[in-house]
Amino acid sequence: MKAFLVDLNKCVGCYDCQIGCKDEHCGNCWMPYAEPQPDTGQFWLHLYETEHGARPHVKVSYVPVMCQHCENAPCIKAAKNDAVYQRDDGLVIIDPEKAKGQKQIVDACPYKAIFWNEELEIPQKCTGCAHLIDRGHPISVPRCVDNCHLDAIQFGEESELDLADTERLKPEFGLKTRVYYRGLPKRFVAGKVYDPEIEEVVTGATVTAKSPSGSWTVKTDAFGDFWLRNLPEEELELTIHGGGKSYKGNVSTKEKSIGMGNIALK
After folding, report:
1. Which residues form the domain of 243?
2. For 86-140, how does the pLDDT look when each residue is reduced to its tens digit (9 = 90+)?
3. Domain containing 142 — which CATH number?
4. Quick check: helix, strand or coil at residue 5?
5. Within this chain, do residues 101 and 215 fall inside the same structural domain, yes or no?
6. What's 26's DSSP letter?
7. What is the pTM of this model?
């Protein structure tokens, strides 16, 4: 079975994958797999750029999201007349002719990766560039893969890809997707620790976050900054000890990562 591997540790947010997808499919008809993608309004591969935290403790994540080519694809179940099918290699394809007028196919995708072409009255999405895979020359991989100059997106046999330390997007959907991600953004708490009496940052302070899931500890750096990474989405108790002073409070990562700014020890 074919699969994608997206390594977000390599991605720099250049948008070359998104541009390559548009270039391959806008103005080009690749029947029987796809009618042309509209110039605007659709991104069969969408690079989601998101800021996490608050200044000055901010991180930006870039996550390319396309059709996940699910083994248990809900779009297949929602379609009539076998308008959506899975190839022997695992790629999920919408038949443009059979799918005409079937807008329910769009609504079936929990990843919001299927789009409605109002002019042609058909649902459309990433095909895994099946036309290139079948042709095999000169390009035998999807255009997003070919366009990525950092090798952040790979495509090949699932059994041959290095899937160590990878995870699926939204595994709680239970769809057994064939797009694997390495380095998906996790929650963090960050801040700068200082002593208000002497008006100096506190280096080497011990910062600990605790929750029902566990405990995480780091030291403040030479600038008084700390980053507690890979935290659960929970309520956390935060304690800081340094220079004979301390701080204690609560913080929540349920909705987002937290940039606490300056934290005074007392």
Report:
1. 187-264
2. 999 999 999 999 999 999 999 999 999 999 999 999 999 999 999 999 988 778 9
3. 3.30.70.20
4. strand
5. no
6. B
7. 0.90
